[in-house]
Design brief:
The protein is mostly helical. Helices cover 61% and strands 3% of the residues. The protein has a 3-stranded mixed sheet, covered by helices on one side.
Length: 472
């Protein structure tokens, strides 16, 4: 779309948002939900199809009816324009180009939170986060994040100063993009992605989308010297795609036929990207295929070289390119900044300074410009406040679920080493995917692993893998 069309498109998006809100909040829908809820047979078993669907319908309806139509339309129009200005600001590394629109989005987010309301002892951020992860509250997130941050910072300090440094050779290899695409597609095929119900294309930022269980669309990005990111991104999005393809088809287009939460969704992508794609067993299988696919460009690299390159720990600026150990620190910075922005304790104009200060404190890096700093993510331009912790929750869920898979499937590594990923996919299909949103995320975690969510499995995973690599 030409830049001049932004304003018109924003008005279109506003009108569509208003129409959808009008239909979604029709009082007749509320009456129908109430009628169903009054039928004891429909709600007797909380995990039944009818009760689970009603729970999700009631939650969505009640939340939607708390918002006035004029706020819904104003948010849609502002977000459309703000995203355009964010793109321009990011390209020019000029925060001031985006600041007025960030201020407007913050104002609209606060108004939205006030409409939703929050309980005593809670805060505006909680009201917004509920729309992304049911039951997620800032105080609970902080209680998990603080000890996790302390352990991660200590671990990263150990590793960076460790006596051994992993090979970085794979990170500097230049490979033809067409060959990279073919290799990533082959890996995704081995993971079990069904190409008759899905496809993959290129985009500026990798994502997974689609319309139903039989139409799942992945995208990825490539550069000739960026194979590690291309492989990680492809496996990540394919993990999302396997979840979507594994949803209960008989409940497609109903609440049950959707993901339990964004955190659970992210657990599936992070599991395939990190717990599979960065494992020794995976590279035992992948190494000879790399040599076959790329020839002399990688023939001098050993299986160990490739494994080590995938597990480098290097504090950096960009979240989506962060390594497995530092990634969560990126999320913590954003979570903390969102809280103070929503509480009015930080002005938008002061965001770059506070962002850079926290990056120096948590990751030890000096942010050189706003494009590599507070302008790097699209989320705030779209008004998505309360979203970021779901990424970290995804890592926590992934680690805890993967520990359970290892317990239930003891020969998992030997399967990976042969390129057989079906035992993992089958376990996830049965214990995670097939349930859709029948259970709340926290309940699903307990059902799948026997325990409430904890940070300990992730820390065991990172410390157990990375310390030997760095000789600490």
């Amino acid at each position: 779309m030409p830049p001049g069309g932004v304003e018109h498109r924003a008005r279109q998006m506003s009108q569509i948002a208003g129409l959808v809100h009008q239909w979604a909040t029709d009082p007749r829908i509320g009456d129908l939900i109430s009628e169903c809820e009054a039928d004891a047979d429909l709600v007797a078993d909380p995990s039944s199809d009818s009760a689970a669907n009603l729970r999700e319908l009631r939650k969505s309806y009640d939340r939607a009816t708390k918002l006035p139509s004029d706020l819904v339309t104003e948010r849609a129009q502002t977000r459309s324009i703000a995203t355009h200005h964010w793109q321009e600001a990011r390209q020019n590394a000029d925060f001031d180009l985006f600041r007025p629109w960030l201020e407007k989005n913050i104002e609209l987010a606060r108004r939205t939170a006030e409409c939703y309301g929050w309980a005593d002892g809670e805060e505006p951020w909680d009201a917004l986060a509920e729309g992304f992860e049911s039951g997620m509250r800032a105080a609970n997130v902080e209680a998990v994040f603080t000890p996790l941050r302390d352990r991660l910072q200590a671990l990263i300090t150990e590793l960076v100063g460790g006596p051994k440094q992993p090979s970085t050779a794979l990170n500097h290899v230049v490979l033809p993009i067409d060959a990279q695409k073919a290799f990533v597609r082959d890996v995704i095929t081995a993971m079990g992605f069904d190409w008759s119900r899905g496809r993959i294309d290129d985009s500026t930022h990798p994502f997974c989308g689609g319309t139903c269980v039989d139409d799942v669309r992945l995208t990825n990005r490539y550069r000739d010297d960026g194979f590690v990111d291309a492989l990680g991104g492809g496996m990540h999005e394919a993990g999302h795609g396997l979840y979507e393809q594994g949803m209960p088809a008989e409940h497609d287009l109903t609440p049950i036929g959707t993901a339990a939460s964004l955190g659970i969704h992210e657990s599936q992508s992070r599991m395939w990207e990190n717990f599979v794609g960065r494992s020794e067993a995976f590279w035992h299988w992948a190494h000879p295929r790399m040599v076959q696919a790329f020839g002399s460009a990688v023939s001098g690299l050993s299986e160990r070289d490739m494994y080590e390159a995938m597990n480098l720990v290097e504090p950096s600026f960009i979240r989506v390119e962060a390594d497995e150990a530092t990634y969560n620190l990126h999320i913590m910075v954003r979570f903390e900044l969102e809280r103070v922005l929503m509480n009015g304790e930080l002005a938008a104009a002061d965001l770059p300074h506070e962002w850079n200060r926290r990056y120096k404190e948590y990751l030890g890096v000096d942010v050189p410009n706003d494009a590599l700093g507070c302008l790097q993510d699209i989320h705030w331009s779209g008004g998505s406040f309360g979203y970021f912790p779901t990424y970290c929750l995804g890592n926590l869920y992934a680690a805890q679920i993967f520990e359970q898979v290892r317990s239930d499937v003891p020969d998992l590594d030997s399967s990976f080493a042969k390129g057989d990923f079906s035992p993992l996919k089958s376990w996830l299909n049965e214990h995670i995917h097939a349930h859709g949103s029948r259970y709340e995320a926290s309940d699903l975690c307990v059902r799948a692993t026997g325990k409430p969510l904890s940070a300990e499995p992730l820390l065991r995973h990172l410390e157990g893998k990375l310390r030997p690599l760095y000789g600490v």
